[in-house]
Automatic annotation (TrEMBL):
Protein name: Sulfate ABC transporter ATP-binding protein
Assigned keywords, A-Z: ATP-binding, Cell membrane, Membrane, Nucleotide-binding, Sulfate transport, Translocase, Transport
Gene Ontology molecular function: ATP binding
InterPro entries documented for this protein: AAA+_ATPase (IPR003593), ABC_SmlMolc_Importer (IPR050093), ABC_transporter-like_ATP-bd (IPR003439), ABC_transporter-like_CS (IPR017871), Mo/tungstate-bd_C_term_dom (IPR008995), P-loop_NTPase (IPR027417), Sulph_transpt1 (IPR005666), TOBE-like (IPR024765)
Residue runs in coiled coils: none
ABC transporter domain residues: 3-233
Taxonomy, superkingdom: Bacteria
């Protein structure tokens, strides 16, 4: 493991931002810290970087106890959402900065900067000033600068958070490809589940200062540890008091399955290939259901018709959480 965080607690005054967090981050992988705003993702990243010191617990980086090391001795590269470039220096100079203060030979610096700018596809902009770059290009420059000093770990705090959706999507694909080329252990913070699922090898779900679950995107999606993780990784609804994904509900026009829940279609929304239904059950539950357009047409669903709902085979369902964690038990319908 590249990073071992053990029993870390971090308080700001009376507020507990991280509570007894233990997590192992594997070498050479792209790991996302995912969770809602205020959950403690950035604080954990900053504790790993040494920008915040933990009140209790330890941080090991590549086998070295880094708990008391200052950031510059941890061999980590850091990129923030709003990257502060040296405005008066060219892109190439910005990337070269870390190497020059380490007094590397001029030729070596020039070669490395060229190589890095090629890697982040900015070689044609080497002589521009940061203000002459787009937001996405600036973040790529920031990544090149962080990579210049060959950190053992790259820490990214919502690196694409300030950019518009389209550029964000491009950069996330680009980050994945970049990581496949350089394989540096990378930890990035995001509150966007789609970004985490698409880009990362491993996801750490953080909520209320605690780790809810660690796993691959598939593990988290197929076997969420609790209803929080399940609901954070995609849309969920409730059927008969249990949490289920809207596309995991089977709709029929007759009670074909024992235990199927009867209800009336109260709303039909057609969005491209998808049809979203709201079904009001006899118990007063408003169940959200997602169907394909052909299936909805075949069933003849429209507002006011009576339908029966049941989980499809293999659906992930779990009790809605009144309190945690005793009430959260994963069930797979067979
Ligand atoms: N320097 C600080 N002083 C006081 N409280 C802080 C400080 N830094 C963070 N916090 C609090 O700790 C909690 C966790 O913050 P953190 O930035 O780690 O959350 P986050 O999950 O990264 O959220 P976001 O996605 O909004 O950045 C928040 O409630 C925040 O207000």
């Amino acid at each position: 493991m590249s990073i071992e965080v053990k029993d870390v607690t971090k308080r700001f005054g009376d507020f507990v931002a991280l509570e007894d967090v233990t997590v192992s981050i594997p070498t050479g992988r792209l790991t996302a810290l995912l969770g809602p705003s205020g959950g403690g993702k950035s604080t954990l990243l900053r504790v790993i970087a040494g920008l915040e010191s933990a009140d209790a617990g330890s941080v090991e980086i590549e086998g070295i106890d880094a708990t008391r090391l200052p950031p510059q001795k941890r061999n980590v590269g850091f990129v923030f959402q709003h990257y502060a470039a040296f405005k008066h220096m060219t892109v190439a100079k910005n990337v070269a900065f870390g190497l020059e203060i380490r007094k590397k030979p001029k030729d070596e610096v020039a070669d490395r900067v060229h190589e890095l700018l090629e890697l982040v596809h900015l070689d044609q902009f080497a002589h521009r000033l940061p203000s002459q770059l787009s937001g996405g290009q600036r973040q790529r420059m920031a990544l090149a600068r962080a990579l210049a000093v060959e950190p053992s770990v790259l820490l990214l705090d919502e690196p694409f958070g300030a950019l518009d959706a389209k550029v964000r999507k491009e950069l996330r694909d680009w980050l994945r490809r970049l990581h496949d080329e350089v394989h540096v252990t990378t930890v990035f913070v995001t509150h966007d589940q789609e970004e985490a699922l698409e880009v990362s090898d491993e996801i750490v779900v953080i909520n209320n200062g605690r780790v809810e679950q660690v796993g691959t995107p598939d593990e988290l999606y197929d076997e969420p540890a609790n209803d929080f993780v399940m609901s954070f990784l995609g849309e969920v609804t409730t059927l008969g008091g249990r949490v289920i994904r809207p596309h995991d509900i089977e709709v029929s026009s007759a009670p074909l399955v024992v235990g199927a829940v009867e209800g009336t279609v109260s709303r039909v929304l057609r969005i491209g290939f998808e049809v979203k239904l709201t079904v009001l059950t006899l118990d007063g539950e408003a169940v959200q259901v997602q169907l394909t357009r052909p299936l909805a047409a075949a069933l003849g669903v429209r507002e006011g018709v009576t339908v029966w709902l049941s989980p499809v085979a293999g659906a992930t369902v779990m009790p809605a959480r009144p309190s945690r964690p005793a009430a959260t038990q994963l069930t797979t319908v067979s």
